[in-house]
């Protein structure tokens, strides 16, 4: 596990974003469409509306559509730099990663009832925690974190 931690200690969220998320390419479109469909139609029998995005990386893409359905969202990742990148976006820091193409795409999937800015605000309201997570541990989030109704992992 020490080797894994050392590998991720040098992880660069901005470089990752530039490489894989600078635009909404066909692969990302497919991913976003599937999540939109799942949260719009597929969770009608779910007893609660709490979402955990474990292994979120430095991205907010998995929670874009989840924010329409969920009451609360917890995001979690092993890499401190990834958690910091998410927090910077949530707090609207000046040098945050740019998710505007993704926000625009998902806002359009929702049928025009929400603007990209409103979608961003909704996500910021719904994400209640950004936590460290180690999926190789018996309690990846620690014992104090309750179970969630929906768990997503998109690595």
From TrEMBL:
A Pfam family that the UniProt record links to this protein: NNMT_PNMT_TEMT
Family listed: Belongs to the class I-like SAM-binding methyltransferase superfamily. NNMT/PNMT/TEMT family.
Gene name in the database record: PNMT
InterPro entries assigned: NNMT_TEMT_trans, SAM-dependent_MTases_sf
GO cellular component, one term: cytosol
A molecular function GO annotation: N-methyltransferase activity
Protein name: Phenylethanolamine N-methyltransferase
Biological-process GO terms, alphabetical: methylation
Keywords for the protein's UniProt record, in alphabetical order: Methyltransferase, S-adenosyl-L-methionine, Transferase
